[in-house]
């Protein structure tokens, strides 16, 4: 190409770039103006008549939220069977499965002015969720310091040690009777792989003891993690452990054993359109809590266009880790044993039929 031709091409790109950006904005923001009825979406809401547990589902009278797992009280029955030990685990020996509903970790982000809280599950948008609550509760300071929801980091975040609680009962005292409580869950395989890449590969480069000093060896890590989970569920291991805190089954968070039905439960969306769709569902929750529209619009925009600094989605390391796990039946079976009840309770599909 001649110098004149190259120069003209650069000019054309410069002229067209704003148009491309505008189109992207329109595509993403169309979610904002859609009918905000959540019926038929993948989000999970406990809004059904429960068996004689004495627990009442949230938001009585709401009609625009889907039933738990979109299957009615049948799935509630499965959860109750798991709790009382009568659920049949298919091909698995129950003694080899990591038990569900251990009360291991509770971390909440709270916006008292809106009676709003989110229970944080590690490797499920915890950093950006903290940024959202910081923006909701400290909007003026957040804007004045030119912060962005999508670029906050854990160590340098504005709301360090703010809005955070580590006890379910304490959160209830802050929220009062009229409250909105939610959490986000993620496909167990995707969550495990994201955690492995972030903690064992990326952090492992500068912290050799990370992930049991396995130096990126997934088989080594899974063996040690499975052993630690089996020990922790007996109550013999109660102290904080970095790997256990980040890789525990999702049913071990949020005091789910006693308060599973308190929460509106959303499912993390994978794929290129996943975050925009999840943003639409989060907005419906924030709207229910009466968060002002201008704040909600900024949250939606940041979720659509932003990307957190340590996201692993779509990276070469993530693809490699996925291949290692999915091509090793023994390894995959162990991971399923660790997270089996996450698949069942939160209605995720087991990746392959396996036998014990």
TrEMBL record:
Alphabetical list of InterPro entries matching this protein: Chst-1-like, Sulfotransferase
Highest taxon, organism lineage: Eukaryota
Gene responsible for this protein: Acey_s0010.g1124
Entry's Gene Ontology molecular function annotations: chondroitin 4-sulfotransferase activity
Protein name, per record: Sulfotransferase domain-containing protein
GO cellular component terms listed in the entry, alphabetical order: membrane
One annotated GO biological process: chondroitin sulfate proteoglycan biosynthetic process
Pfam families (alphabetical): Sulfotransfer_2 (PF03567)
